[in-house]
Amino acid sequence: MTTQHYDLVIVGAGSGNIIVDEQFDDFRVALVERGPFGGTCLNRGCIPSKMFILPADVATTARRGDALGVPTRVGPAEWRTIRDRVIAKVDADAADGLEGREEADNIDVYQGTASFTGPRTLAIDVDGKITEVTGDQVVLATGTRPVVPDIPGLEEAGFETSDTIMRLEAFPARLGVVGGGYVGSELAHVFSSYGAEVVQVEGGDSLLNDQDADVAAHFTSAVERRWDVRLGTELEKVSGGGGDPITLHLADGEEAEVDVLLLAIGRQPNSDLLDLERAGVDVDDSGRIVVDEHQRTSADGVWSLGDASSDQPLKHVANQDARVVQHNLLRALRHTGDGPSDLAVSDHRAVPQAVFTHPQIARVGLTEAEARDEHGDDVVVARHDVADVAYGWALAGDLDDDAEANGFVKLVGRRSTGRLVGAHLVAPMASVLVQPLVMAMAHDVPVAGLARSTYWIHPALTEVVENALIALESALESAPDDA
Ligand SMILES: Cc1cc2nc3c(=O)[nH]c(=O)nc-3n(C[C@H](O)[C@H](O)[C@H](O)COP(=O)(O)OP(=O)(O)OC[C@H]3O[C@@H](n4cnc5c(N)ncnc54)[C@H](O)[C@@H]3O)c2cc1C
Ligand SMILES: NC(=O)c1ccc[n+]([C@@H]2O[C@H](COP(=O)([O-])OP(=O)(O)OC[C@H]3O[C@@H](n4cnc5c(N)ncnc54)[C@H](O)[C@@H]3O)[C@@H](O)[C@H]2O)c1
């Protein structure tokens, strides 16, 4: 077995791949990736899912045509056309990413699986051929993978996860989705909008149950009008499949027959592939790599970032972590800086997130329940409905029961600080509307004056955010008993 030494070894070419730029030209880098370049986000996550969601949103909007006086006929979606557009884009980007790295003089790409054999020493298995590499610095950007539970009949029946469902050959007439979180809800929206009959099974008492309770309730009742939602129950057994219909046997005694089964019950870290104990790298009880505020692990010279180490598994968090690691690595490799005081720090406050369903949902900060747990009576809540601003009238929540036209902005503040601690939006383009609220929280701007300190375009939908801020300002100013 040969051993190669590098200045830097990076395991995982998702967000790990963005670390190395021209600042690293003088360093020898090993980049190890067991799957396609670009990782989860590019190949089977954010990018393809949002490319599938756009046509789903078009179909959902078109179906409202009748209520708005534009008779519209929506045929079944052309799965292969949609799928091929998505897959062509992501596969080309992944191939370009790999090619760019292979052409770089200072980078050796290993297309295999790495695991530690000792401190900062890894064995890389490329199709059974093992190479040992050592690194002065090592970055673990190894992400997560879908959880697959041990359920009787599952393996025999066959199932999909978010890793595989986007490449299905044939569109299923009936889809079973187990899990009511982000992945399950976004993909239920996609397949339902394209014309599949969807049944979604969630163990909790609402879908999207880590959102604010008002948002989760609004979303759950909205999609119950579109597909079959089974709450408070779990998949206990699976029968059939292997080309025949699949029967889902649920814990409450109910059954559902589907053609394809999607498991979306969460994700687990890939840290178990790394033999981390041999390198002195600690993980927590859920297998997440433990890092400090500089993204340093418990082992000297070993860093981690993104889903591998984060409790907020989102791509914008992974990107930000990667920028922190890049800054800190360059100091370590160049032996410059004044020690820890010169290291960049990850700021994981005010991280926004969005669920790209219909209705679209966005959030930053604490839910009302989390805020009340943390801050008790100091918490003040205000809300403004989409239907109560001018653009909401155009969206016509009065004409049908569209879940976005009947959406809202809910703000959570603290009386003692006069600051926003949480914002929850259900609205068209909620992922865009939330941004001024993210800025306010990140820059610690007082709520007082925030709405009136700038113009808000009339009659744009941003007026719903403006009005929610005005309502929160007035609630913060009122006596506790009047709020
Ligand atoms: C369906 C879906 C939709 C999503 N949509 C969004 C969204 O809209 N917005 C958002 O912010 N986030 C979204 N996410 C989450 C987002 O994809 C992740 O937060 C992000 O990709 C994490 O990046 P990462 O670099 O930490 O990990 P990854 O992108 O998972 O990269 C880890 C890489 O490490 C490789 N690897 C692992 N172990 C080893 C090993 N031992 N040896 C070699 N290679 C290894 C893996 O093959 C992988 O390529 C979505 C996720 C899913 C599943
Ligand atoms: N738009 C986005 O930003 C986006 C989109 C997709 C994924 N993601 C990321 O990926 C992560 C994983 O998403 P996910 O949806 O796989 O996980 P999740 O944790 O968000 O949701 C899993 C859901 O499955 C339920 N569940 C668990 N076990 C079950 C069982 N046996 N039977 C029935 N229900 C069960 C849970 O109660 C939960 O509601 C998210 O936390 C998010 O960070 C983000």
From TrEMBL:
<keyword id="KW-0274">FAD</keyword>
<keyword id="KW-0676">Redox-active center</keyword>
<dbReference type="GO" id="GO:0050627">
    <property type="term" value="F:mycothione reductase [NAD(P)H] activity"/>
</dbReference>
<dbReference type="InterPro" id="IPR016156">
    <property type="entry name" value="FAD/NAD-linked_Rdtase_dimer_sf"/>
</dbReference>
<dbReference type="InterPro" id="IPR023753">
    <property type="entry name" value="FAD/NAD-binding_dom"/>
</dbReference>
<comment type="similarity">
    <text>Belongs to the class-I pyridine nucleotide-disulfide oxidoreductase family.</text>
</comment>
<feature type="domain" description="Pyridine nucleotide-disulphide oxidoreductase dimerisation">
    <location>
        <begin position="351"/>
        <end position="468"/>
    </location>
</feature>
<feature type="domain" description="FAD/NAD(P)-binding">
    <location>
        <begin position="6"/>
        <end position="318"/>
    </location>
</feature>
<dbReference type="Pfam" id="PF07992">
    <property type="entry name" value="Pyr_redox_2"/>
</dbReference>
<dbReference type="InterPro" id="IPR012999">
    <property type="entry name" value="Pyr_OxRdtase_I_AS"/>
</dbReference>
<keyword id="KW-0285">Flavoprotein</keyword>
<dbReference type="Pfam" id="PF02852">
    <property type="entry name" value="Pyr_redox_dim"/>
</dbReference>
<dbReference type="InterPro" id="IPR001100">
    <property type="entry name" value="Pyr_nuc-diS_OxRdtase"/>
</dbReference>
<keyword id="KW-0521">NADP</keyword>
<keyword id="KW-1015">Disulfide bond</keyword>
<protein>
    <submittedName>
        <fullName>Mycothione reductase</fullName>
        <ecNumber>1.8.1.15</ecNumber>
    </submittedName>
</protein>
<dbReference type="InterPro" id="IPR036188">
    <property type="entry name" value="FAD/NAD-bd_sf"/>
</dbReference>
<dbReference type="InterPro" id="IPR004099">
    <property type="entry name" value="Pyr_nucl-diS_OxRdtase_dimer"/>
</dbReference>
<keyword id="KW-0560">Oxidoreductase</keyword>
